[in-house]
Amino acid sequence: MSSTRADLKDRHILFIAYFYPPTDSTGVPGCMRTIKFVRNLANGRCHVLTTSPQTKSSPDALAHLHLPVNREQIHRVKSLDIFKFLLWARKRIRLLTSFSKRAEPTDKTVQSVLKTSNTNGEVASRSKVQKFKDFIYDACYFPDQAGPWIIPAVIKGIKVVKQHNIDAIFATGSPWSGLVAGYLISRLSSLPLIVDFRDPWMNNPFHQSKGRLLDDWSARLERRVVKHASAVSLNTDPLHAEFVHRYPDEPANKFFVMPNGFDSAEFQNIVAEPRVTVQDSLLLCHAGFLYGVRDPAVLLEAIRAANQQLADSGKRIVFRQIGDVNLGYDLKDRFSDLLEDGSLILDSARPYKECLSALASADIVVNVQPGTRTQIPSKLYDYLAINKPIINITSPDGALGTLVIDKKLGDLVSFEEKEQLTQLLKAYALDEKLGSFSGYENRDEFEISHITQTLARRLHECLDAP
Question: Which of 236, 278, 400, 462 would you label with 392, given CA atoms 20 to 30 Å apart?
């Protein structure tokens, strides 16, 4: 554990984090942000309000962690899923009414006519009914899939505040239900609140609309949460700039940046696993979900071209993907030649610590990120901790590209620059000094102990304010 842990000055902090271990692989980034903060705070007491364990159908991706990580007290509360109750009630009603329907005579001819009828009025009626059903579903899971957790979390949170003399609340999202729960607990308890945006709530490129009404409610809810909060944390500079612009009536110093960062303590005992390729190959590795716009096609096409050009050198480039793949095409079919000659290795999702060991055995680690304006993948900070060369496949105008250029955190190639990527891979494959890479100059800036100092300072400012 870091010797430079931030001083809480005997204060008690309630962290509201929907994701907290144990969890499946999708919950790892959310879990690790809170874990890193809790682990690096001292001279106070941390309480974590979270949901019940998220590993019923999959292994715990953070099984290597032993809770508590720093004497924190964990308070778990289950969701109150109204939609599931409605489904159960409907099923019961249908069972009860089915007995009376069996006793009624059935006119098969009329029934057949009704079923085959396809008038515009009937189609419109069905459409309205389906829209109503969709609205009920979306309302039950508002503002996101964690919506059913809000009410139980608020009830539990108020009890925790009273029983443990909580001084301040720190709520992190997504899911945004965590921020809503923090907002309500803060309103009911009059405690200062810091809300932490790990992603954009509004203007999120991966957002799926719930319809105009609920989308408007989400925008109003974000505004209400932000206006009430004592301070607002954003995890990237572009997201910070967006919030300052969106809320011009709020003091600019209300908003501050806390990147995800990396915790050196998490990497002290990471041992590189045995290489999956021969020593003369250049091994690239990516750990995480590849889907939709997070498409590795340009990398694989560049590897195919580079290997053809390197055929006489005895060198070969291999890309290892660890994690699920869900693209708009069949990756195995499109790149079957790379699979056959061993230039492409597809591994299933693995626990977080095993992924780190696999990444540590690679020569180069890879980011595949669409040019999102405000989002930076948390794996960038894991890559910095592992201290391997990084190839970032992203737009230079996006949040990741801007950070990479500004802080000199590896190579940057856009999705359209196949030839440039091919030449870069060839240069790395022929570089005899690659093994002597010593890290990026600005790496230590993202050590979580420094970032946690910022969190502690803002907590004390909120608590000491008149």
Answer: 278
